[in-house]
């Protein structure tokens, strides 16, 4: 079984259901097995990032699956400490994955970090604030990414965690319009107005954490659970995933469990086929009815332009507990 496809503005198509790899610890056998199983189960889209620290294991799983590379849509992302060195970061990713090209390359966050700071992932100043590279312009990061398309190292480029405000910083000078914008999108953070904006720009939305973060209450939401029962679906998660698919949002559920990997794929497609306009209207109203909630709010200390976002100015997490999807 393979998921249905969504068209990108450059003529490519992207599988609407991808296997997320965030927070999959670099245990070679476990991660490789999850990717291998996902591909054998029918996934044809793998979402990676240099920051996740597990691209070598993802590449191992890709090769072990026996699925030809050209049949798998592979995405990765450039991290903030590499905004001045996009090609260097991309080359590391390609080597880690064991491939000569990416289908999609994203700017992970619209935040450039000090490349010479005290940590390669998250440099911190002595006052506890994140060490942001304030002299760097993300429009130059985008130009460097456009160059990777021209060199043939990536087929498409896009962004991640970009608000309308941040998109409008790069769009006026962009030669290539972002193909996608990967965001925190789920029942409790649907960003409906922003989705309309993205559609107007022909930018495909992608949903990371479509079931919410670890321990999130979405899986017990009363409205989604009632609809799952009404439509004879196997679980509430089917509704949560299918709901996003009905809006032409690429979903990226993550699991290390073989059974969950399979059910996320089959359940999402089943829900997509049976959810009614009435169901979608009910689900659209859940967040507005008092359940609006973001789960991923890194303390960048700068305004990213998102609604429903409040962030401290101090870095208050250990590197082992980073939540920077």
Structure description:
It is built from 10 helices and 10 strands. The model is unreliable at 316-321 (pLDDT under 50). The chain has helices spanning 28-41, 55-65, 86-97, 138-151, 164-170, 192-200, 222-230, 236-245, 258-274, 277-291; strands at 5-7, 13-15, 19-20, 45-47, 73-78, 104-107, 157-160, 180-184, 204-208, 250-252. The longest helix is centred in the last third of the chain and has 17 residues, at 258-274. The strands form 2 sheets. Strands 3-4-5-6-7-8-9-10 form an 8-stranded parallel beta sheet. By secondary structure, it is an alpha/beta fold. The two termini are 28 Å apart.
In brief:
The chain has 325 residues and is an alpha/beta fold.
Sum up the structure in keywords.
alpha/beta, eight-stranded parallel sheet, 10 strands, 325 residues
Any chance you could write out the topology, listing elements then pairs?
Layout: E1 5-7, E2 13-15, E3 19-20, H1 28-41, E4 45-47, H2 55-65, E5 73-78, H3 86-97, E6 104-107, H4 138-151, E7 157-160, H5 164-170, E8 180-184, H6 192-200, E9 204-208, H7 222-230, H8 236-245, E10 250-252, H9 258-274, H10 277-291
Helix pairs in contact: 1-2, 2-3, 7-8, 8-9
Strand order in space, largest sheet: 3-4-5-6-7-8-9-10
- The 3D shape can be described as globular
Average pLDDT, to the nearest integer? Answer: 93
Number of strands: 10
Sheet-strand content, in percent, reads 5-15%
Give the low-pLDDT segments. 316-321
* Helix content range: 25-40%
- Class by alpha and beta content: alpha/beta
- The N- and C-terminal alpha carbons lie at a distance of 28 Å
H-E order = EEEHEHEHEHEHEHEHHEHH
Number of helical elements: 10
């Amino acid at each position: 079984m393979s998921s249905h496809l969504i068209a990108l503005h450059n003529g490519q198509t992207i599988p609407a259901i991808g296997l997320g790899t965030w927070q999959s610890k670099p245990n070679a056998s476990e991660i490789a097995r999850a990717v291998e199983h996902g591909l054998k189960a029918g996934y044809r889209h793998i979402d990676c990032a240099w920051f996740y620290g597990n691209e070598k294991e993802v590449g191992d799983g890709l090769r072990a699956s026996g699925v030809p590379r050209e049949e798998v849509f592979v995405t990765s992302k450039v991290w903030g400490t590499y905004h001045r060195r996009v090609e260097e970061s991309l080359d590391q990713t390609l080597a880690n994955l064991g491939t000569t090209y990416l289908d999609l390359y994203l700017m992970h966050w619209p935040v450039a970090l000090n490349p010479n700071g005290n940590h390669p992932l998250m440099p911190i100043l002595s006052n506890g604030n994140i060490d942001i590279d304030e002299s760097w312009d993300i429009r130059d990061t985008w130009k460097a990414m456009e160059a990777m398309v021209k060199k043939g190292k990536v087929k498409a480029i896009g962004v991640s965690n970009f608000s309308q405000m941040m998109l409008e910083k790069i769009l006026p000078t962009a030669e290539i319009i972002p193909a996608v914008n990967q965001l925190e999108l789920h029942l409790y953070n649907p960003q409906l107005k922003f989705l309309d904006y993205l559609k107007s720009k022909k930018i495909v939305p992608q949903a990371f954490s479509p079931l919410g973060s670890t321990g999130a209450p979405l899986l017990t939401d009363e409205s989604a659970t009632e609809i799952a029962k009404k439509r004879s679906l196997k679980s509430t998660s089917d509704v949560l995933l299918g709901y996003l698919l009905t809006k032409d949002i690429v979903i990226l559920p993550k699991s290390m469990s073989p059974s969950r990997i399979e059910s996320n794929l089959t359940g999402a497609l089943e829900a997509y086929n049976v959810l009614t306009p009435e169901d979608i209207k009910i689900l659209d109203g859940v967040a507005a009815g008092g359940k609006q909630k973001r789960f991923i709010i890194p303390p960048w200390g700068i305004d990213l332009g998102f609604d429903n976002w409040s962030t401290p100015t101090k870095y208050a997490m250990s590197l082992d507990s980073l939540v920077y999807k």
